[in-house]
Request: fold
Amino acid sequence: MKCYICAQQGVDTDAVAVCIVCGMGLCMHHAIREEVAIWEGGYPFPSKKVSKPMPRILCPECAEAMKGGN
Amino acid sequence: MGSLLKRSVAEFIGTALLVFFGAGAAVITLMIVNVFIEGQGLQTTAGIGHLGGIASWLGIGLAFGFTIMAVIYAFGRVSGAHINPAVTIALWAIKKFPAKDTGYYVVAQLLGAVFASLLFGAMVGPDAWLIGGLGATAPGFSAGVWGALIAEIVGTFILMAVIMGVAVDKQASPGFAGLAIGLTVAGVITTLGAVSGASLNPARSFGPMVGDLLLGGPNVLGVFWIYVVGPIVGALLAVFLYQWFVTESEDSS
Reply:
């Protein structure tokens, strides 16, 4: 698989990851890795944060959209 | 997870809200009945249901149910929103809740209930304890202590069984616990309210009882044991039975 963003720019780069939202292939330069805190529990038990966060790979467009706002 | 202090404060506030609005609804109902009786010049004792029949108990049950629903959705992820020593003790008994936190939770719940009763009394005035008894629970009709004890055991059994089914069980659909549990309590109170007061919760009975003793309301100390033994026995029966059910289904699958 090739990096979709690089391909749009006329560059041929191998993908190293896939955006979890839109599925586009991403090279190391365009892949955005986020750490998402995971909480477990809830009624009738207090919620607690799991010790290790969950990694999430996103493309720049989806990462921007996930932040919300205008 | 928040500190034990934060979680205990959440239990204090949650139980206080339960007693303030739930037991408060019983107080207001009695005061409305009393005004009607006085207006009619009747020589009788005011009782819940005197005017509205079972609808009065439904109204009180919904006041409890809506408050429980609100507290579960507001504080469920903070402390677990037990707001009931019987629930806390039952979860501890099946090793779902740490022993070191259990005592703190129960004390916070009891103190929250007393605080709410005193606050409600201060808000409404002497009629709250002289007529409404601060919503204290006692056996009603011809039930007697043993009938009331059975009502508390059965009522808390179904409450705790629902908690196990909609919240503790990992197979349960998330998000429905507050609604299901609130409506269950409303239903139980509608039927059993006239029998025992349908406390289902030692803290809910403790607050008004202590408030009455402090302010000069009716003394229901002699029947308080019903509202300790009944809910705890009912909750324990429910959790152990539910665990047995789940174990059976896992064996057969």
About this structure: The domain at 4-252 of chain B is CATH 1.20.1080.10 (Glycerol uptake facilitator protein). Chain B touches chain A through 21 residues (CB under 8 Å). Residues 30 and 217 of chain B are 14 Å apart (CA to CA). Chain B has one domain: 4-252.
